[in-house]
Structures are given as C-alpha cells and as structure tokens.
Design a protein that fits this description.
The chain is mainly alpha-helical and about 270 residues long. It has 16 helices and no strands. It has helices spanning about 1-10, 35-50, 55-65, 70-75, 90-95, 95-100, 105-120, 125-140, 145-155, 165-170, 180-190, 195-205, 210-225, 230-240, 240-255, 255-265. About 55% of the residues are buried.
C-alpha cells in the first residue's frame, strides 16, 4: 500500500503541470499527499478494523477536507444521506489497492473491490476499474509474471494492454475516467524494470499523474516486493501521524515482510 501512497505524493506536483519525461525529481517541497492517499488509507482501515467502507471513508475523509476531492465525492462525503452517484471516475481505482494485499483468493478480491467502489462509483466502468486494479495487485503479489497479469486483466476486463508507455505518452492528456486511467496505469507497471521506474513511467504520461502513479505504485509494490528506503522515508515524512499509524497497522496484519522490516527501521 505504501507504493500507492508514494505514487500519489510523487505525482502530486505534476497533476496540473504535466510532464512528458521520466527525468524529474521524485520529491520536492511541494510534494504532498492528496485524496488518493487519504482514501487508500481509509480502505485499509476498514479492512483492518472490519468497518464498512462507507463509514471508514467518510470518517477519515472528513478529517482532511482539503485533500483535493472531486466535486461529486465532496458532496457525498459531507452529505447527511449519502448515496452512490453513478461515477465512472478513477477515484474507485485509486483507493482499492489494499484489497489486493489483504484478501486471499480472486473471488474475495473481486467482491471486496466492487464493494469499495459501489458506495460512490456505481457506474459499470467505476466498478470495473476497481476490480481490475485489485486483481492486478493480487496477481502481482501471488508472483504471477507480467505477461500473465497482462493476459488476465485484458481478458477479464477488456482493456487494451498491448500498447506501451512510449506509444501512449505523445497524445495522452488529463483524463479522470477509469477507462482512460486504469489501463494506462497498468501499462506503466508492465513496462517498468523496477518500482521507481514504474512510478516514473506513470508520471511521464502527463495525465492525472497522482492517480496514475498511485494505481501503478500499488501494483509495482506487490510485484517487486520492495520500495527503495529513501522513498519510504519521504512518504513517512509527508504523512501526518494518524494516517501513518493506520498504514502501519495495515502492514502489521497484511504487509509484505521485507517492506515491514524497512518500516521498522525508519
């Protein structure tokens, strides 16, 4: 899950200042966590403490009202009577990575992913995006190779994963839809040679960079089973104590052992 948080923070600087290169500083004074991190941690908290996703997302989301939520989500977050609003936006996909780490078989992963999404993103594309990302994280964690992940996600969800980052980058633009974000984020992972390279691929597409890198980072963490310690250290430095504490609790129950050891050493 820290892979998703790292992607969000690294990509935050470039969301409104898109770049088309992999050569950029990973962190700077303006690198901050956004709604992607807040809601990913909220999903993790719901899993650890057996809360409803709606309750956890609304409770933790309300702590950080200025995190950068979309307008419809903001209305839902503070509504006295929240209801799904048929969204196909990429918010369902960016918050789902903890599901891929926590549940032990594909059926559970797909069911839980849909449950995290349907409270807000009840459009078929919103549900599909969440399911696809959670399954990609799960398969990566189960040591599936990249071609198996490509084949499974393509066949299950109909996404075109035959493209490459180099093919996508020139004409890609800001896109907040699941259908215009999820396949590109997965390709950024598939084309990478390391965790850091995956994040650089995602940001270099020049789109909704924090969300692209958040999705890519969760999958890359599960696959590579490590995050450079200097990246973890920067994530810790930028997260408030309450969010970091929730993150640690999730890792102690579901985390990758090597990364847990890194966290203990921070």
């Amino acid at each position: 899950m820290n892979g998703a948080l790292a992607g969000d923070i690294i990509g935050s600087v470039y969301e409104w200042r898109p770049i088309k290169t992999k050569t950029f500083p990973l962190f700077g004074p303006d690198s901050v966590f956004t709604d992607d991190s807040v809601l990913t941690i909220a999903v993790a908290d719901a899993i650890v403490n057996r809360l409803s996703y709606e309750d956890a997302i609304r409770e933790i989301g309300r702590r950080y009202p200025d995190a950068g939520y979309g307008g419809m989500f903001m209305q839902w977050l503070f509504s006295g009577d929240p209801a799904p609003y048929n969204s196909w936006g990429n918010g369902s996909a960016m918050r789902v990575s903890p599901v891929g780490f926590a549940f032990r078989n594909e059926a559970e992963v797909l069911r839980e992913a849909e449950t995290t999404a349907e409270i807000t993103h009840s459009h078929p594309e919103g549900l599909k995006g969440a399911r696809a990302v959670a399954l990609a994280v799960f398969l990566a964690g189960e040591r599936a190779d990249k071609e198996e992940i490509r084949r499974r996600i393509s066949s299950e969800f109909g996404y075109d994963l035959s493209r490459t980052v180099e093919m996508i980058r020139p004409d890609y633009a800001f896109d907040v839809s699941c259908q215009g974000t999820v396949p590109e984020a997965i390709i950024a992972f598939l084309d990478a040679v390391s965790f850091e390279d995956a994040i650089r691929n995602a940001v270099s597409l020049g789109g909704d960079s924090d969300t692209l890198a958040c999705i890519t980072g969760g999958i890359a963490e599960a696959f590579y089973r490590e995050i450079p310690v200097e990246i973890l250290r920067e994530v810790r430095r930028r997260l408030p104590d309450d969010l970091w504490s929730l993150t640690e609790r999730f890792y102690r129950k579901y985390g990758i052992p090597g990364i847990m050891e890194q966290l203990d050493a921070l």
